[in-house]
Design goal:
With 710 residues, the protein is of the alpha/beta class. 32% of the residues lie in helices and 20% in strands. The protein has 19 helices and 29 strands. The protein has an 8-stranded mixed sheet with strand order 11-10-7-5-6-12-13-24. The longest helix is centred in the C-terminal third of the chain and has 20 residues. The protein is globular.
């Protein structure tokens, strides 16, 4: 791959790295253990060599509330053992989210997308003191329902304040949180909830998106009917009512206001001093269940441990990101994406969180208006959002003040090199732009931000402390310098999932055994004893003591391998982004690629493969021979002859998951002969476009057959 950018100067250098929280932690480690660590990489190396000492020190440094006890983890064990952590510890995640009780400090601010009927919707606000009181009342109400530790509490809601309260109250009493975004289709939610059997379901009555109010109760009713028919489950339903008059109310449902009122009057679950009786459980107690995308099968129910989620989030926010109580933290996310869990964990720092319900792009200025209005200092989004913003040539810097911004976070897919340029040229020249990577599997980060390190174009800043990330070749050896490979983690880490649901004690012996085997096959079957994450990645040469940044090259199962040369799909996308996307320097009459998808088609009976590039063009443009030639020429010159697509085909649309990720693997399977029914359409935003890929796949396979006959 082209590595010219690796020698380029940084796009951003922290103005006072020596005063960063990360450097302070390094000094504390040196003092406590008599070491002479001098750089981030020194600290990183120690953190993965002595995982027991490192995580023990993190616990103390970030002030975890709870009982730590003796013993951290067996420092000699391997990831596949999935060892217990802090075996004597007793903690409660929600208790740690509500250590701040200020009556003057806003905990949550909820903004809603304007509609023609409500062009200036008021923001909803709740202070930390008010948040604690409402959580206590809901704790009481849930105890009145007879909930006990280990019961599942589910949400089918928008990104509202009540949803955060429900999560805090459920986990305060040891229940396990499960969430699905309101924009998920009922079939997709049913596939998730029927696996975990929630006793209570929270839901909103309506959601706002793209300038319209969408009634949600019909979808809720459909979900409940499915749960009743397929698994005889009839959970208690609590509906968060908006001010809108939404039809479809069922008399068996209970309103949010009624539940809170009942909880307030009973005051269950309080100590004699009036404090919530926090249900402190073991470090490895299940906190929440997240689901894989499920595009090619039933979504995997991934169970995350409470202590791991707490300790990892506090490390990421406090030590690595330097998040402070005075920060205002926003992340554009739905409640079905792990970034919602990531954002909510920011309460543990005592900062203000901004929730948003609506479209991020219908009015491109709206989120940036919120930055100025609410003084947002940490702005989180997806690479797809930044890409779309750049394509419509919206430059926030020209329309907004944005002086309050300190950090911009991007995730969901690799952030193209050209989008680093866009952020620094068109949004803010002096922010820490952190492309971050991890995922639903660990509900946290393998690589990401560090306030003590520079930002280099196209790179994730560093491997995160305590996360022993390496790259392996296909046959399981460590990659050489400059060689891309498979992302693996070679030491245990506390945010590793406990397993897939059901865990022991929560299902039949047969179902528990099947879940354990499915878990093993997902993460430990590729390389013996090592966590295999499924990302194709390059670790760059170390600069400024960072130990090497990361360049994400795509999902491993989407890696292309023509002629035995392996490369990630993002290597193609980056060229297209740089040379063919709409920008201020190009005009609407030029040939512009709006979106693209690249997959491999098997040839020679599976002995080799060829690269197939699908492109979606702006407007009604047609793919010309000249444009095809130019695409091939640019890919050849910027990458290699092996990267050049054998076929470039124009399509009407590119399929995406509900969380905004390109659907490469299902399309690859369809191109190679799988039926559309093999793809779970409930997980896709636009499943109707798959029919065109099936038709094209049939044509491509006939091409191969004709070539063989000749």
């Amino acid at each position: 791959m082209n590595t010219e950018s690796l020698a380029a100067p940084p796009l951003f250098v922290p103005p006072d790295a020596i005063s960063s929280r990360c450097v302070a932690f390094l000094k504390k480690v040196n003092e406590k253990y008599g070491l002479a660590l001098d750089s981030y990489f020194d600290l990183y190396q120690w953190s993965i060599d002595r995982i027991d000492l490192f995580w023990d020190t993190v616990w103390d440094d970030v002030a975890i509330v709870g009982y730590k006890g003796q013993g951290v983890v067996d420092n000699n064990t391997l990831p596949a053992a999935n060892p217990p952590w802090f075996s004597e510890a007793r903690i409660n995640w929600a208790e740690n989210m509500l250590t701040c009780r200020s009556a003057d400090k806003f905990a949550l601010i909820q903004a809603t997308e304007p509609t023609p009927e409500c062009p200036n919707p008021p923001h909803q606000r709740v202070t930390y003191a008010e948040l604690y009181v409402i959580v206590a009342d809901l704790v009481s109400a849930l105890l009145m329902l007879g909930l006990k530790p280990g019961d599942r509490v589910a949400s089918y809601s928008s990104n509202c304040i009540e949803n955060v309260i429900a999560c805090l109250a459920a986990t305060a009493i040891g229940c396990i949180w499960v969430s699905a975004a309101a924009d998920f289709g009922t079939q997709g939610v049913l596939e998730r909830f029927e696996q975990v059997q929630p006793r209570v379901v929270f839901a909103v009555d309506a959601v706002v998106y793209n300038g319209k109010v969408h009634p949600h109760l019909p979808k809720l009713q459909s979900l409940l009917s499915g749960l009743s028919e397929r698994c005889s489950l009839n959970p208690v339903v609590i509906v968060i009512q908006s001010a809108r008059n939404v039809p479809g109310w069922d008399t068996d449902w209970v309103s949010w206001d009624t539940v809170i009122s009942k909880g307030k009057s009973s005051s269950l679950g309080r100590t004699s001093e009036g404090e919530i009786e926090w249900c402190r459980q073991s470090f490895d107690w299940p906190l929440w269940i997240l689901f894989s995308s499920g595009t090619t099968g039933c979504p995997k129910p991934i169970v995350h441990r409470a202590g791991g989620m707490l300790l990892q989030a506090k490390k990421e926010f406090v030590i690595c990101a330097d998040l402070r109580p005075e920060d205002v933290f926003f992340y554009y996310t739905t409640t079905g994406w792990m970034m919602w869990n990531f954002l909510v964990s920011g309460l543990s720092v005592g900062c203000t969180l901004v929730l948003y319900d609506g479209s991020p792009l219908r009015e491109p200025s709206y989120l940036w208006h919120l930055v100025d209005e609410l003084q947002i200092s940490i702005f989180g989004t997806s690479a797809k959002y930044l890409d779309q913003l750049s394509r419509i040539s919206y430059e926030p810097r020209d329309h907004h003040n944005l002086t309050c911004l300190r950090h911009i976070y991007s995730t969901g897919s690799p952030l193209a090199h050209v989008l680093f340029d866009y952020v620094y040229e068109c949004i803010h020249p002096n922010v820490l732009l952190a492309s971050i990577t991890g995922g639903t599997d660990i509900c946290s980060l393998f690589g990401g931000m560090c306030s003590a390190l520079p930002v280099y174009r196209g790179e994730i800043q560093c491997r995160m402390l305590g996360m022993a990330v390496e790259t392996f070749t296909h046959d399981g050896h460590n990659c050489q310098a400059g060689e891309a490979g498979e992302l693996v983690c070679v030491r245990p880490f506390p945010c590793m999932p406990i397993g897939f649901w059901p865990l022991p004690g929560f299902g039949t012996d047969e179902s528990v055994k099947a879940a354990a085997e499915r878990f093993r096959l997902s993460y430990f079957a590729e390389y013996k004893d090592m966590w295999y994450h499924g990302d194709h990645v390059l670790i760059t040469p170390s600069q400024h003591g960072n130990g090497g940044g990361l360049i994400m090259l795509g999902r491993s199962d989407g890696v292309l391998n023509p002629g035995g040369i392996r490369f990630g799909s993002s290597e193609i996308y980056n060229v297209l982004e740089t040379c063919f996307s709409f920008s201020a320097q190009r005009n609407a009459n030029d040939a512009n690629i709006e979106d693209a998808l690249v997959v491999a088609q098997s040839i020679e009976g599976g002995a080799d493969e060829r690269v197939i590039l699908f492109v979606k063009l702006n407007g009604k443009q047609a793919l010309s021979i000249e444009m095809e030639q130019k695409i091939r020429s640019e890919i050849r010159s910027q990458r290699s002859p092996r990267h050049v697509p054998a076929r470039i085909i124009q399509v009407d649309d590119i399929p995406y998951t509900l969380n905004g990720k390109r659907v490469e693997i299902p399309v690859k399977k369809i191109v190679n002969g799988a039926h559309i029914s093999s793809v779970n359409s409930a997980t896709l935003r636009n499943p109707e476009c798959l029919a065109q890929f099936a038709s094209i796949g049939e044509m491509l396979r006939k091409e191969i057959l004709m070539a063989v006959k000749r």
